[in-house]
Write a structure and sequence with these properties.
The protein is an all-alpha fold and 278 residues long. It contains 16 helices and two strands. It is 65% helix and 1% strand. InterPro entries: HDOD (IPR013976), RNase_Y/CdgJ (IPR052340). This is HDOD domain-containing protein.
Length: 278
């Protein structure tokens, strides 16, 4: 089976909801569904998080990050962390856990390296998206964070299946962009029951049309993706936007500029990024 046929095969399965996840992902999906219940109380959410030591540690860490701890008062309990962040941010952390678990069973060094780079790219985009939402576009920061975390989930899923399809990583990045990214990504996002607003922002990223100054959630995600200092390994090519070119992106935002706002927010981005990379 050649590369394009492999993409089509995975995409067809994804469109039918026939997705193969590691056991750990299934457990995290159940947690995500529980948190999505509008009747899920803070105490219930805290108990669910405490059952997962890794998630519990990250929850407390992100609650103490610059992005959420404006007062400088550190907390040490999961319940206090959930109360500070809210269930919606907690859902983003669970989504991050799901995305990372997709690559947990990979043993091939080449694929593992791509998964590691893709997560580093994802973490940068998520952190930048949240700050851009809060400081520039004024869209909901929690939704922007969530969008950044899941925007490459189709790529993670493809990499988790790569060992089944020898040669799927060969060829040009354009093959993935044209024949795999949207078809597989949409199927995985649908299976994960991603909110419509988030799905629309990822679709805007696929289309690649961004307004300057950015205005909506799609623009927020696109700008964060452009500004991320680590590129997606699935999109790299000689013609890809370089980090140097990305740094030239600027526009007037109110009384300041995009570059000045991002410079002022560097500590916030760094703090959130550090938690996501744990």
């Amino acid at each position: 089976m050649n590369r394009l046929d492999a993409f089509k095969s995975i995409a067809a399965q994804a469109s039918r909801g026939e997705l193969t996840f590691p056991t750990s992902v299934d457990a995290s999906l159940k947690l995500q569904q529980a948190l999505s219940d509008p009747d899920c109380h803070i105490d219930d959410a805290a108990k669910l998080v405490q059952a997962n030591p890794l998630l519990a540690a990250r929850t407390v860490a992100i609650a103490n990050s610059v992005a959420y701890n404006r007062s400088g008062n550190e907390i040490a309990s999961v319940r206090a962390a959930v109360q500070r962040m809210g269930v919606r941010t907690l859902q983003s952390l669970v989504a991050a856990l799901i995305v990372r678990q997709l690559g947990s069973s990979i043993s091939d060094p080449l694929i593992k390296a791509k998964v590691a780079q893709l997560w580093e790219h994802t973490a940068h985009v998520a952190a930048l998206a949240q700050v851009i939402a809060r400081r520039v576009t004024k869209v909901d920061p929690d939704t922007a964070l969530f969008s950044g975390i899941v925007h490459e989930v189709g790529g993670f899923y493809m990499l988790s299946r790569a060992a089944e399809f020898p040669g799927i990583l060969d060829g040009e990045p354009e093959d993935w962009v044209e024949h795999g990214e949207q078809a597989i990504g949409r199927g995985v996002l649908t299976k994960l029951v991603i909110p419509e607003a988030v799905l629309a922002s990822v679709e805007a990223l696929w289309e690649g049309f961004r307004a300057l100054p950015p205005e909506n959630l799609g623009d927020t995600l696109l700008l964060a993706n452009d500004l991320a200092p680590v590129a997606s390994p699935l999109h790299e090519s000689p013609g890809a936007t370089s980090v140097q070119a990305a740094r030239t992106i600027d526009c007037e935002i109110g009384e300041g500029t995009l570059n000045s706002i991002m410079a002022e927010s560097a500590a916030e981005v760094k703090s959130l990024l550090a938690v996501l990379m744990l």
